[in-house]
């Protein structure tokens, strides 16, 4: 490995730079480097956890008579149902339980990604680097979670004197904390390991972009109403499970080289299953205000609340079917049908989760194949690490947030008031008189009893 490091410029500092006269040796050197690189990746793969091979001893002995294919099927099935059960319990626990879980998942995913970085760049012994990675995670969470708190609880926070400063200068404080980490990194640089340290610095920031940013968007989706979290997550789970089932029993045509076990049969079967599942789940969940109301802070109650009059998205409306479906409707004796408008949006979500969502998994597969590892971790038998289960969820969360912002979200008095309370007293008065004058000119105040 010292030879490989020497060629990379990570030796004792006396490495010679290749000149044009040495170009005839470049191909030979490239081949030698390729062989050394392959040996290095093989050694690396042995040091990283392989989750699908780790099962409880009791379960391992009970399934010893099965072939490896069916053994993996049973193990994956058992732990899939356990995870679905845990997910249902978290939903029952409410939004706070879900938010805490998202934070825990985020930390574990970051740990799995960053540990691969430590192994790749062999940073054992480098000063402060492990501490720096976790410091940047804390700083990023302070910024993003602080943004959420200000957006949704700005009114009550501004009325608390000792928190007003944190709200007003939140972004400046966040940037100052990041600058501390940046200076800390520069001061920790070691001449012999510049390349490794800068590579891991970039690795850390990519991990933050993938994990922390996405978890921030997931929290925002939860605040819009539990249905915007539960339905997309359930769609990804359904697509993952059904694609595996269809691929296991009917899969013959390879889908993508990055993931050789994925098949067109599984991809198509999982897609159709997800669309049907999404429509049924959306219809059932749209009936419960607890699931569809946004999470807001109630000043009168002094706590978070999800009590509201459901919006038009979650009220049954009458629709006329397209012309090509009208003959079928006439057979049933009806010309129109009732459905929740949210089901139309869920159709868009289900198509994304079944067509684009799997590419999050393909991306993760390519990443793992680059280092010849099966999984990011070994937390879940038959599945691997936490990141192995959430690779598609993060991409889906981003789409849902963009979708809500683009097509669903509208300004509400509660959110506007939170911004008004951040204004100076004279600005609030100016806004008050301007609004009063506008209402009087339109005779709206005169209509109020």
UniProtKB/TrEMBL annotation:
<keyword id="KW-0548">Nucleotidyltransferase</keyword>
<keyword id="KW-0443">Lipid metabolism</keyword>
<feature type="transmembrane region" description="Helical">
    <location>
        <begin position="342"/>
        <end position="364"/>
    </location>
</feature>
<comment type="pathway">
    <text>Phospholipid metabolism; CDP-diacylglycerol biosynthesis; CDP-diacylglycerol from sn-glycerol 3-phosphate: step 3/3.</text>
</comment>
<feature type="transmembrane region" description="Helical">
    <location>
        <begin position="165"/>
        <end position="187"/>
    </location>
</feature>
<keyword id="KW-0808">Transferase</keyword>
<feature type="region of interest" description="Disordered">
    <location>
        <begin position="1"/>
        <end position="30"/>
    </location>
</feature>
<protein>
    <recommendedName>
        <fullName>Phosphatidate cytidylyltransferase</fullName>
        <ecNumber>2.7.7.41</ecNumber>
    </recommendedName>
</protein>
<dbReference type="Pfam" id="PF01148">
    <property type="entry name" value="CTP_transf_1"/>
</dbReference>
<keyword id="KW-0812">Transmembrane</keyword>
<feature type="transmembrane region" description="Helical">
    <location>
        <begin position="225"/>
        <end position="251"/>
    </location>
</feature>
<dbReference type="InterPro" id="IPR016720">
    <property type="entry name" value="PC_Trfase_euk"/>
</dbReference>
<keyword id="KW-1208">Phospholipid metabolism</keyword>
<keyword id="KW-0472">Membrane</keyword>
<keyword id="KW-0594">Phospholipid biosynthesis</keyword>
<dbReference type="GO" id="GO:0004605">
    <property type="term" value="F:phosphatidate cytidylyltransferase activity"/>
</dbReference>
<feature type="transmembrane region" description="Helical">
    <location>
        <begin position="199"/>
        <end position="219"/>
    </location>
</feature>
<dbReference type="GO" id="GO:0016024">
    <property type="term" value="P:CDP-diacylglycerol biosynthetic process"/>
</dbReference>
<feature type="transmembrane region" description="Helical">
    <location>
        <begin position="263"/>
        <end position="284"/>
    </location>
</feature>
<comment type="similarity">
    <text>Belongs to the CDS family.</text>
</comment>
<dbReference type="GO" id="GO:0005789">
    <property type="term" value="C:endoplasmic reticulum membrane"/>
</dbReference>
<comment type="pathway">
    <text>Lipid metabolism.</text>
</comment>
<keyword id="KW-0675">Receptor</keyword>
<dbReference type="InterPro" id="IPR000374">
    <property type="entry name" value="PC_trans"/>
</dbReference>
<keyword id="KW-1133">Transmembrane helix</keyword>
<keyword id="KW-0444">Lipid biosynthesis</keyword>
<feature type="transmembrane region" description="Helical">
    <location>
        <begin position="73"/>
        <end position="92"/>
    </location>
</feature>
<feature type="compositionally biased region" description="Basic and acidic residues">
    <location>
        <begin position="9"/>
        <end position="28"/>
    </location>
</feature>
